[in-house]
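Hi support team,

I submitted a single chain yesterday and got back a structure, but I'm not sure I'm reading the token output correctly. Could someone confirm the output below corresponds to the sequence I sent? I've pasted both exactly as they appear in my results page.

Thanks,
R.
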Amino acid sequence: MIRFDRDLYLLMILTLFLAGIVALGEGGWLQYIRVPLVVICLLFFPGYTVICVLFPGKDDLGQMERLVLSFAFSVIMVSLIGFVLNFTPWGVRLLPCLISISTFIVAMSLLAMYRRYKLPPQEQYAPFLELKLDSFTQLSVLDKVMVLMVVLTVLVTAASCLYFIASPKPVERYTEFYILGENGIADSYPRELAVGKEEKLIAGIVNHEQRNVTYYMNIKMQDIVKSTKGPIILRQGEKREEIVKISANYPHEKLKVEFLLFRDQESKPCRTLYLWVTVK
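Hi R., thanks for writing in. Yes, this is the structure output for that exact sequence:
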């Protein structure tokens, strides 16, 4: 029989390690550690610490009961933490959830250590692994069912983790296109134009297409192309802001000014913006 009395120390170290690699963001080899650690942290650690606080003695609860109740209490505790966060200014988001669950696990681990160390050493609970081939056959029917349920849960969770890691994540491909006033503020568009006078605007383009893209921009008034910008070649993630000028030679009560953005050699615009102006 193998006993391990440093389980709570290891649990806190893994929790803090998980918080660190999640804070580092996605990418790299850490993503293969992050997913299984998150699953274990959410489905086992919170409940295990609660059970250790409630039952610090080795004879307070059986090994199999501890395992099953740890999964059950983990679901309850994580759901309760999410419910409480939903009514706070932080909301149910990654960082608040990570901090809250990690704090809960560390706090309950420290409390469990205090409760455990108040008992005589021979009465303190410590996880153990008994390596006997016939140990399963000696269990009661209820214990056998619980063992099989735990094993099935672990296998399904592991398979889900592997599928999540192996499946390629869909990458969103889009182009960001916006119009600002001359001073760079969105609400400072010109509402009126003087006949024959040019007004300056800022047209912004951000490439999120996961490739290099050549853009062209047309400015239309009354379905007539007044000017063209381009080619504007942007790499993935690159941003460009261009000064554009609009003017009208005749009075107009409600003139529609359109900004059409074309991608590569496509005949249809990928993005369209427009303004309504009065020409006096």
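A quick pointer for reading it: The two ends are 92 Å apart (CA to CA). Let us know if anything else looks off.

Best,
Support desk
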